[in-house]
Amino acid sequence: MKKKIIFSILICYLMLGCEKLFNDNDSDQLPKPAGKFIPDFGFRIENGSNPAPFADKDGAIYLFYSDNRYQPPKRFMTTSTDGLNFDNPTEVLDRSRNPFNKLMPDGKTWRHYQLNWKPDRSEYWINSESSTDGIYFKKDEGIRYVPAESDSGTLGVFDILVVDNAVWLLYVGAIGYSTSNVRLAESNDNGLSFQFLLPNVFNDSQKGLGYDHRDPRSHILENGIRVYTMVQGLKPPHPGHRAVGNIYSFILNDTNDFIQEDGVRLSHMDFTNYNVWSLNDPWVVTMKNGTHRMYVASLVGIDSSDVHWSIISATWDPTK
Fold it and tell me: Is residue 19 in some structural domain?
């Protein structure tokens, strides 16, 4: 009988201890699901690509994009009140709504960075223009960045982040080589000059060409920074035969490392109302109601006979 009583007491202590351990955990510190983006019905912009959305404080969405009916493609801007239906595209671009404009660490200088290359692609460089009001810009003298030695003379899609008192340049280097992936350069002079800082930002150097993370684009949250990327796979899209493209995400942690979140945020397989052959250039904004919406360029069409670029979208579901 004594043994049974002692055993029962031990079980109670264990149960109480486990309950206390569970209750003492701060739920805010526990990992939260990164969620999934659920495709929105229809197309946002037919024949559009390279989306760059901006959400203003009143809830309007300004979408900058390239119209591929022109060669070379022309840049347009269109607006929406719900983020789904856009109208009145114009070539008159509102510079104050351009999401590529970045406020520098000094809190008063806006800078817009631009990727340039020679016609034969033998040289790449990034320059900039600056403004004190975010509307009227003047070209800055000199060059902000040229490829590092490991970039094999190339620069690709890039993003600018302001982290603490530094400006970060996330960019794709070594384009076309098996070593291609996203690298990091840093500026400590208010965005005027960048020095190569880190290779292999997303820890994918061993995966090989096609399985590296591309098209990096940051989304500034109330409590941090999330970066979305696209992984194509070994082979490019082949409309009518092969669809490619998954969107992933990384969170910038307290030690300024990018940590990949579990799962896929959006896949070409998620779209069932029409054929999606690729996903490119993901860009997420926060709507006025707190909803996160992703705009992404895609090759759409039944097959290669009618394939064309379009901008499509998906809305975040944090429970997925």
Answer: no
The answer as to whether 29 is a domain residue is no
Please write the tens of the pLDDT for every residue from 100-151.
999 999 999 999 999 999 999 999 999 999 999 999 999 999 999 999 999 9
How many domains in the chain?
A: 1
Evaluate if pTM is beyond 0.85: yes
**Parent domain of 97:** 36-317
The CATH number of whichever domain residue 299 belongs to comes to 2.115.10.20
16 in a structural domain: no
Give the pair of three-digit tokens for residue 230: 């696209």
